[in-house]
Amino acid sequence: MWDYTEKTKDHFLNPRNVGFIDDFDGIGEVGSLACGDALKLTFKLDESKRIADAKFQTFGCASAIASSSALTEMIKGMSLDEAAKVTNEDIADYLGGLPKEKMHCSVMGRDAMEKAIAYYRGEAEKKIEGEIVCECFGVSDVQIERAVKENGLTSIEDVTDYVKAGGGCGNCHDKIQFIIDRVLGNAPRAAKKPEALTNIQKIKMIDATLEREIKPALNQDGGDIELVDVDGNRVMVKLRGTCASCSKSQITLKHYVETKLKELVSQDLVVEEV
User: Fold this and answer.
1) pTM score of the predicted model
2) Which is catalytic among the residues 35, 136, 172, 243?
3) Is 35 among the catalytic positions?
4) CA distance linking residue 120 with residue 25, whole number of Å
């Protein structure tokens, strides 16, 4: 059991502001079901441009629900400039603290607020800055560097707690350590030889890559793809929608899906349709 404060337990068991504002002024969505946590935040402004109401919908653990509930309570009555200054540490402090392993839940709330404000202001959604370091959870070097600087993180485990990076297959640990050392001004450590992926690690990376990199591209053309099974280096999938009846489906599988999985997971993978 995590050591939750009484206030965190209260916001989990009796969450405030659950739901969706139909005539919202701002909306922000972060996370994904593939990664285990997802949050949708909406807010409504009053005549003085202060946040009159805020609601959330979340899929996640007790900390995710409590952090979302706390955030919506905190920002009511704030101007957008004030709400934009709310940090993940502020959310955790409001709850009396969170287990360090669950700090990524408060980060998710902060990120959703930033996206909702950007929506209201008509700002283009920020693309992921920098280079993806953690393929399992789609976390970039810029995001990791920000977390290290803002929260005084000193270890890979700390980074995983705050932004999830490094919590999957572990192949990104050397890169995360390099970023930590660079931010802290430490001498870089010698890279370790990457360990072979277990089947579970491989499946998680394949599934994350399909969700983040491949499915969105196929969806744009009315297609989709489903992971059926992984047997060693054989990745068995099923094409859906327009992709299923397309005469060029095998080209899509080999020259796009397989190439992408080889690039982001393992050069040994072979994609087959079942």
Assistant:
1) 0.58
2) 35
3) yes
4) 6
